[in-house]
């Protein structure tokens, strides 16, 4: 039977729940980091990614409304995160659309929900479900620790290739540079909120499980981008992956 973990034990367990399920492992991410994708492939990514991250402030807003009033640290973090996404400088979705247009697609195509894949729609729906229905601390674990904390490690592998291989300008890849920094901060704050407030065995176990599910959802979403848009042009063998 599980026992209540101290903060160090719980932190390690949260990290292990995500380990081995990073979206970096997907063939789409490997093809990107190695410079094998075309700008057209990257455009399809942007058209999908908009519908996952575009509503992120909405997810946090639902969560903010349900967070217990006494958890002021968590409420302040959620509010600050929403502010950064929407009005704390350039709106993050506008930066994503700027990159998408540099890849050859249009704002109209990016914002059209008919251009996202079924798997992207599933990830978006899962995020809304978690934000609206899960225990608020469990939801922070899923959305911030399980999903958002992964972003810096993913973009650190992909962003140099965007400049060196594809020739994008600093302005065109600002979306990625911004999130390498901001999501590292957000991810760490998410960890601290979960470590502080998941104070029962049940809450700790639920947080561990939802982190695992969140990592699996992002890996599935990223793998689906390869299956939907790339596999007929770049084989797994070319990526030196087992079929």
TrEMBL record:
Q: Which Pfam families match?
A: Haem_oxygenas_2
For this UniProt record, the keywords arranged alphabetically read as follows: Oxidoreductase
PANTHER family (alphabetical): 4-AMINOBENZOATE SYNTHASE, PQQC-LIKE PROTEIN
Its protein name is: Iron-containing redox enzyme family protein
List the top taxonomic levels of the source.
Bacteria, Pseudomonadati, Pseudomonadota, Betaproteobacteria, Burkholderiales
């Amino acid at each position: 039977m599980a026992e209540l973990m101290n903060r160090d034990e719980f932190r390690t367990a949260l990290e292990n729940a995500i380990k081995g399920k990073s979206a970096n492992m997907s063939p789409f991410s490997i093809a990107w980091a190695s410079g094998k994708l075309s700008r057209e492939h990257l455009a399809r990514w942007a058209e999908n990614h908009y519908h996952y991250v575009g509503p992120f402030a909405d997810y946090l807003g639902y969560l903010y409304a349900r967070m217990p009033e006494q958890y002021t640290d968590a409420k302040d973090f959620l509010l600050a995160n929403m502010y950064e996404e929407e009005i704390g400088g350039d709106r993050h979705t506008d930066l994503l659309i700027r990159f998408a247009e540099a890849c050859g697609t249009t704002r109209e195509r990016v914002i059209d929900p008919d251009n996202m894949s079924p798997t992207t729609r599933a990830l978006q729906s899962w995020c809304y479900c978690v934000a609206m229905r899960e225990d608020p601390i469990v939801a922070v674990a899923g959305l911030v620790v399980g999903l958002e904390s992964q972003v810096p490690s993913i973009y650190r592998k992909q962003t140099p290739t965007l400049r060196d291989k594809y020739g994008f300008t600093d302005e065109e890849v600002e979306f990625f540079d911004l999130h390498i920094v901001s999501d590292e901060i957000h991810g760490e704050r998410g960890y601290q909120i979960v470590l502080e407030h998941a104070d029962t065995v049940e809450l700790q176990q639920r947080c561990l499980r939802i982190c695992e599910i969140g990592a699996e959802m992002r890996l599935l979403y990223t793998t689906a981008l390869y299956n939907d848009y790339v596999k007929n042009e770049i084989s797994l063998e070319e990526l030196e992956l087992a079929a």
